[in-house]
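Hi support team,

I submitted a single chain yesterday and got back a structure, but I'm not sure I'm reading the token output correctly. Could someone confirm the output below corresponds to the sequence I sent? I've pasted both exactly as they appear in my results page.

Thanks,
R.
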Amino acid sequence: MSEIKNLKPECIWRNFDALTQVPRPSGHLEKVQNFLLDFAAKVGVEAFKDTAGNIVMRKPATPGKEGCKGVILQAHMDMVPQKSKESTHNFETDPIETYIDGDWVKARGTTLGSDNGIGVAAIMAVMEAKELKHGPVEALITADEETGMYGANDLPEGELNGDILLNLDSETWGKFVIGSAGGLDITATLEYKEADTDPDDAAIKVTLKGLKGGHSGLEIHEGRANANKLMARYVRDAITGCEARLASWHGGNMRNAIPFECEVVLTLPKENIEAAKELAADYKETFEHEYAGIESGIIFTAEETETPKKEVPEDIQDNLLDAIYACHNGVLRMIPAIPAVVETSSNLAIIDITEGNAAVKILARSSSESMKEYLANTLQSCFNMAGMKVTMSGGYTGWDPNTNSEILKLLEREYRELFGEEAEEKVDHAGLECSVILGKYPHLDVVSLGPTLRSPHTTGERCYIPTMAPFWDLLKKTLEDIPAK
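Hi R., thanks for writing in. Yes, this is the structure output for that exact sequence:
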């Protein structure tokens, strides 16, 4: 039984614990939507599901605070469904199994869902609080943020009444996010007629796992290995040195997560199997050397497997591999005026090649619209040269920083008075829904904040317990001190 509900502040941890019992992977949100509506009815606040699948709650001002500016507390209800290869967890039916490890809350074999379940739990704590003094408060809990910000993109105009938006989806305590990158999904596809495998050939399954993975925005600058890019190096050498042929490729499973594992099946002459295994051992040593200090658990193996009857035609194979090899991955440029912050990057997130279909999915990010367009055209050109059809979807613009924000100044003053130190202003390379919501409600004054989380979108996701109490104290004090209209 989880003990996290006994942590302080109890009002947030209890609600987060309840949330972990409700399946809520992106694309499967009916259970959590009903959970949130039931919660609102239980605590006596107005709530409804809008046409985009978002949950909106409204709590009236406490007596004497009716003239204050309205605050919208915003978070997203869905979570990234990543799990370890050994895990049997079903994200559509099973609760998340949490545990406490020192100062951190973690999950066993899966993502924790603190991104953005902690934000949702904080909103629930505000909605149920009886002693808290505040002006009009709305909650906007959006649907399917992780797969394309669909809830924010389809948010009806005129639905929200507030003047201030506090987004609770940031992941470093003590830093107020005032700007973020835009993003674009790029998908390259190709249909091909499979070739017959030489009946005298054998096959090997090449497995790469144990990489850190991570958030493709917040952690893209840390130099973590991309499983698809590493595998491309081995496959190219196996083709040229071991007469191998590509039968299938499966790498990565979330567009916004750095892929941490990849599996490829190659056919090859029986007499070259040992050479292919030795090549894998050599590459394991190479990768361990190249990523020393970054990746510590690299597993890279080649083992014999059942020989498939079909494989990728040689010319298609070569074109696909060239495109994967050439595809930009990682940081392209830092912000010239803020050189410590990533401006433009891409993540070669998912590769699936099997049974006559090839698909490559990439997430491009940039806080510059012109550089986002440049990167998208670069990637499109790369895969067009391989004969692939390239489509772009799920685009969203960046959020331009407003250093003169009134709510930012209030948060900074409250932080200084509560904790005796200065908070930092930050521009994130991650995509936040703030930019999309501002496109529909341009009058809003917006800041994003939250407690410290690490390694979201991975099985190493964790929440730092000592930051939760100060986060809650700041949120309460800020709501109490919201100025009059």
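A quick pointer for reading it: The chain has a mean pLDDT of 96. Let us know if anything else looks off.

Best,
Support desk
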